[in-house]
Amino acid sequence: MWFSRRKETPVPAELARRIKSALALFDAGQYQHAEPEWTALVLDCREQLGPDHPETLRNVDRLGSVYFRLKKLMQSEAMHRAAHEQALTTFGADHPETLSFAHNRACAMVVMGDRSAIPLLEDTLARQRRKLGMRHEATITTAKTLGVFLFMKGDAQGALDLLEEALAAAMRAFGRDDPLTADIAHQLDIVRRNSYRR
């Protein structure tokens, strides 16, 4: 099991209310409205809770996700990187939240075509395999992300191996009709149909 090394300071009620409201905006796809809300939340979390508080890190990461949806990729990567790097100290390298922040950071890097996403994803996947198991949704998602990016960068065999493993794990964990399973199957089909060109 993984725990923060110190007890979390309780989140003030008003701050918690604003976080809930910002999450609702994100879930509704209202990213333009969510951006200023979360920008202010990050500043207030840092001031009221401290820069290394777990809830501060979660909201830094969430702001990165807002930027990602708005296609502000450099800002997205910067926020996810800030959350990930601080989480290494706050939570530890193998904590599920640290690994989630690492994956989110890598996703922004993938869309920007940054090859340094590959070692980050490989390290994240290796840690998730050990700590969460291959049937965990987070592990399967990282394997899918890495597989897709390997194919984009010309490693068709590496992509096939990872996507086939991810699909088998998703089938066992969630079944054929699950959206994640269907997405992996679609990505694997693309790789198989185009591998001869690589």
TrEMBL record:
**Matching InterPro entries:** NLR-like (IPR053137), TPR-like_helical_dom_sf (IPR011990)
- What parts of the sequence cross the membrane? none
Check the record and name the PANTHER family matching this protein: AAA+ ATPASE DOMAIN-CONTAINING PROTEIN-RELATED, ATP/GTP-BINDING PROTEIN-RELATED
Q: What is the protein name stated in its UniProt record?
A: Tetratricopeptide repeat-containing protein
